[in-house]
From TrEMBL:
Classification of source organism: Bacteria, Pseudomonadati, Pseudomonadota, Betaproteobacteria, Neisseriales
Alphabetical list of PROSITE patterns matching this protein: SDH_CYT_1
A Pfam family this chain is assigned to: Sdh_cyt
Protein name (record): Succinate dehydrogenase cytochrome b556 subunit
Localization terms from the record: Membrane
Length: 125
């Protein structure tokens, strides 16, 4: 038996993905997170449209720092998913497939989502 026919053991924690791979995985994770949290978001939004007592309960829930952190995480998930989705639409029409361009657009998506989250999170906090 030759050494080439042996199975390869992948050490998952030691694999370093390139930035486009990280953006792709985060796009999927953010999409799942947004989908899972959709009932919570709809509940919060319904509290803004109902009676005055419901609105006050909504305001007290939103004022909790833990809830604010969750909402800022969801804000990042939305922004990242949106920006990465636009990037993937361009990739689907074969724009930006060159290695340097793909890396640059992935970095722009990653940085833009973080910067927008910090700016909007600070405004909304």
């Amino acid at each position: 038996m030759s050494a080439k026919s042996r199975p390869v053991f992948l050490e998952i924690p030691n694999i370093r993905l390139p930035i486009p791979g990280i953006v792709s995985i985060l796009h999927r994770i953010s999409g799942v997170g947004l989908f899972v949290m959709l009932p919570v978001l709809l509940y919060f939004f319904s509290g803004t449209l109902d009676r005055e007592a419901s609105f006050e309960a909504y305001r007290s829930a939103i004022s909790n720092p833990f809830v604010k952190l969750i909402l800022i995480g969801l804000l990042w998930a939305y922004l990242h998913h949106f920006l990465a989705g636009i990037r993937f639409l361009f990739l689907d029409v074969h724009k930006g497939l060159e290695l340097n361009t793909a890396r640059a657009t992935a970095k722009v998506v990653f940085a833009s989502a973080l910067i927008l989250t910090v700016v909007l999170g600070a405004l909304l906090w």
